[in-house]
TrEMBL record:
The keyword Ribonucleoprotein applies. InterPro entries: Ribosomal_uL29 (IPR001854), Ribosomal_uL29_euk (IPR045059), Ribosomal_uL29_sf (IPR036049). Belongs to the universal ribosomal protein uL29 family. GO terms for molecular function: mRNA binding; structural constituent of ribosome. GO terms for cellular component: cytosolic large ribosomal subunit; preribosome. One of its GO terms (biological process) is maturation of LSU-rRNA from tricistronic rRNA transcript (SSU-rRNA, 5.8S rRNA, LSU-rRNA). HAMAP family: Ribosomal_uL29. This is 60S ribosomal protein L35. Keywords: Ribonucleoprotein, Ribosomal protein. SUPFAM superfamilies: Ribosomal protein L29 (L29p). It comes from Phyllachora maydis.
């Protein structure tokens, strides 16, 4: 059997079924994900052509495909960022997009370690002259 052609000479390919669940995408490798992404994009292009040609618009199917493409891209990006985090762990500098997102003031604040530091002289003074404890007689 050869390829099927529609009434306007457009090659018709059988469409994939339903939405893609993100849980099913996590165990896949990057090559599998990129292949699936390309398949989804070609399918979306074909659906858009069908929408133009035929009167019956497949808007729901187009919507589902766009969301599936977004899911695949999200997982590809998340995996890539996870690999980058592993690569940069323990390095002196971290790329800006991998650093924690905080306000400018928090980023400029002293670290907890630096804020807790005490000078040697101050430490000795606190040891030698601690706060005095007084017993108060009940009236």
């Amino acid at each position: 059997m050869g390829p099927k052609f529609g009434s306007f000479g457009i090659l018709l390919i059988t469409m994939s079924s339903g939405k893609i669940k993100a849980g099913a995408l996590w165990p896949k490798s990057k090559e599998e994900l990129t292949k699936q992404l390309n398949d989804l994009k070609t399918e979306l292009g074909q659906l858009r052509i069908q929408k133009l040609v035929s009167s019956g618009a497949k808007l729901n199917k187009i919507h589902d495909l766009r969301k599936s493409i977004a899911r695949v891209l999200t997982i590809i990006n998340a995996k890539q960022r996870a690999q980058l985090r592993i690569f940069y762990k323990g390095k002196k500098y971290l790329p800006l997009d991998l650093r924690p997102k905080q306000t400018r003031a928090i980023r400029r604040r002293l670290s907890a370690e630096d804020a807790a530091r005490v000078l040697e002289k101050t430490k000795k003074r606190q040891q030698h002259f601690p706060l005095r404890k007084y017993a108060v007689k009940a009236a």
